[in-house]
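=== RUN LOG ===
request id: a7f3
mode: sequence -> structure
chains: 1
length: 269
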Amino acid sequence: MSRSGGRRSRRRKPLRFVSIVGVLICLASVSGIGTVTLAKYINGNQSGWLQIMPEKFYFASNILEEPKNTEAVAHQLYDWNPAQPYLFFMDIRNRKDDLRVTPGDIIYNVSVESDELTGMTSAVDGSSPVSGGYVITGGNPQVQKLAITVPAGQSDGNASAKLVVTVKAKPQGGIGYTRTLKGTFQLNKGEEDCKAQLETHNAYIDLLVGVDRGQTVTVTWPSCLAPDNTNPWMNGVQGSSRELTLRDEESCRLRFLSPVRSEQEIPSA
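=== RESULT ===
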């Protein structure tokens, strides 16, 4: 993948994203153009029982987002074999950060829909949902691992297939308000040809981007990160995005100066 000594790995990396300070880096490649996107709430007490108000209700994911007016670009998943079970993961959180945490329990349901695939199932931290849905305990920051399984025996007629994951959450014991998160995923039979790897350090973050074939990659980052302009790939950058033109089997290292993060906010590749 890299001319700078990077070692190619054949292991499946089903989701091309990494999370930086709670902000998603989503790496997608369509028609030779890659994109890297470094892409509420406290309780009240009424009548003696907990009621979580909409503006004080934290429920989030590292991949899923609240639905917009237009359909989001599909997250690209690779190494899909219709004859074998296929598994991918995402985080479910009850917090915005360590100081802003939903104080009460949250109950949520997961649905997976597709016009091309059948029999999909979900599990959280290895367990099926209890009666009424999954529960994430409030009061302290919690991160649960939601797994989606596409069973073996799917139709082998297409090189790819799409599915939509929808999560609907509400305060357990509360009334009225719900929050919906959604994500579209495209399963591809081939291997990904554009990869990203994250390295975290005390005062900065390095993002390694590499391609198997020449293409243009757009990197976008949040305002809390400051690009290192001494990096030749970031020299003269203005704003919060940068287009990189990479040749066949070329890679680059981008550096961002970052604020101090808590241990739970350290991203993982």
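=== NOTES ===
The chain has two domains: 1-39+194-269, 47-71+79-188.
The domain at 47-71+79-188 is CATH 2.60.40 (Immunoglobulin-like).
=== END ===
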